[in-house]
Structures are given as C-alpha cells and as structure tokens.
Amino acid sequence: MKLNKILLPFVALLVACDSGDIYPEKKKIEEMNLRVNAVFEFNNETAFPQNYRIVWGAFVGTSPYPLAFEIVAKPDGKETTHYVSTSIPRIATFMALALVEKNENKARYFFKKFPLDNVSGEMNISETVDLAAFERVQAQVFTPQCILCHGGGGFAAGLDLTEGKAYNNLVGVPSHPDNSPKNRVTKGSLQNSFLLDVLVDRPPTVTTNHTTLSTLDAIDDINLIRTWIMAEN
C-alpha cells in the first residue's frame, strides 16, 4: 500500500521565448529504498477521534506536517490495523502514528515515532497503541487550550495544567473547597470528577464558562477526557 503524496506548493518562473512559454518539468520526489510493515492494535477505542484524524505517515525533523500519509480508519473491535509503506520520501526522518487537525493537517500529538536514520531494506513494526494516554490529553487539550489561565499566564483556582505537572495536580486531588467536595479527577469515576462538571455542566461555583473553551472540537476533547478517566485504575 503506497502513501498518499502531499506536495508543497512552489512558485515557478516562466521564461518567454520565440516559441512560446516554457514550463518547468515536474520534479520527481526521491524515495527511500525501504519497505515498512506496520501492525497496530488499539486500546481504549472509545477515544478514537471523530473530527481529528489519526494518520500513519512520514515526517521530517520537527515539522508537524506529514510529507506523505494514510488516514487510519476506526478499528472494528480488537481488529489490528496493517500498513505496508513503500513510497517514503527520501528526506523523511521518521515514520509516525499521529493525531492531526483535519483542516490544517497538522500533527497535534504523536502516538508512536519510528526513526528512519540509517534504515534500508525492510522495517517491521508491531505496536499496541493507547488512544487515551494522558500524554494525548495534555497535547490535545491542556497545553493548547488551558494553560493560558492554568499555567504560564497564571494559576486560576490554584491549578497548574502545564506539561509534567497537570497529572499530579488533577488525579486524586481535592477541588477547591468553595467549588466542590469532589476530587478534581477520581480514577475510574466520571461522577466523582469535578473536571468533567466544569467542562460539561458549568457549575454555579465556577465563574468562568469552561464549556465553550474548546478551540477545535469539544466532542473529541470531552470524549477523550471521559475515556482517560475511566481507563485510570
């Protein structure tokens, strides 16, 4: 199965001569001499996105935009997902299973990365992927949408949601006593996690309306948080 090519736009200089315009030939993308066989099994499938995409693709350096990719379809039950990738651009530095924004095709989170340095011939990959990993919650929700008020810009309600601190400030931690008797997050319990009350119901004790703060897709964000809480044990 070949990867879909994503070509960056370019500006070409057209040169006029007596016989008319001369148009430059389309350059062929150099590809690696590499075949990648990848097999993925997904855990916590209820966190599979509706409006983000999961893609299997080739990336270069620190760029969040895939050079070439295939869209991953939602798996059916415990069915594994197989990919055979051969059309991999030579400039690619790693293959990855990534969560991307549908409109901009920009990676928001990498589930798995596989470096391509000094690799040739054939590479075989077999991985189990947790769709509700806390690292994804951080990358999809907290870092891009919450830390303005709960991070570098301040710590509203005494809550720091920056990377490396968010988990320990949420799980098993009592809410501010003026807000709720619940923990901010209680493992395995949606009913006893005040975080969901804030994001879904807008409790009267919370002055800021958090139910409209999702910048890309509230359905996927809330679904991910629900699945993560239930998967915690």
What does this molecule look like?
The strands form four sheets. The protein has a five-stranded antiparallel β-sheet. It has a three-stranded mixed β-sheet with strand order 7-4-10, with no helix packed on it. Strands 2-3 form a two-stranded antiparallel sheet. Helix content is 17%, strand content 27%. With 233 residues, the chain is an alpha+beta fold. It contains four helices and twelve strands. The protein has helices spanning 134-145, 166-170, 194-201, 218-231; strands at 4-5, 15-17, 20-22, 34-43, 53-59, 68-71, 81-85, 94-100, 107-115, 121-130, 150-151, 154-155. A hairpin with an 8-residue loop joins β5 (53-59) and β6 (68-71). The chain folds into two domains: 4-130, Sandwich (Immunoglobulin-like); 134-231. The protein is elongated and about 60 Å long.
What is shown here, in short?
The protein has 233 residues and is of the alpha+beta class. The chain folds into 2 domains: 4-130, Immunoglobulin-like; 134-231. The chain contains 4 helices and 12 strands; from the N terminus they run E-E-E-E-E-E-E-E-E-E-H-E-E-H-H-H.
The class by helix and strand makeup works out as: alpha+beta
Level-1 CATH class name of the largest domain: Mainly Beta
| Strand segment tally | 12
CATH architecture label name of the largest domain? Sandwich
Binned, the helix content reads 10-25%
Contiguous low-pLDDT stretches (5 residues minimum) are 1-19
Q: What would you call the quaternary organization? A: single chain
Q: What's the story with the biggest beta sheet?
A: 5 strands, antiparallel
Q: In total, how many domains does the architecture comprise?
A: 2
Strand order of the largest sheet: 1-6-5-8-9
> What amount of the residues lies in strands?
25-35%
Shape: elongated
Supply Rg: 22 Å
Provide the CATH topology of the largest domain: Immunoglobulin-like
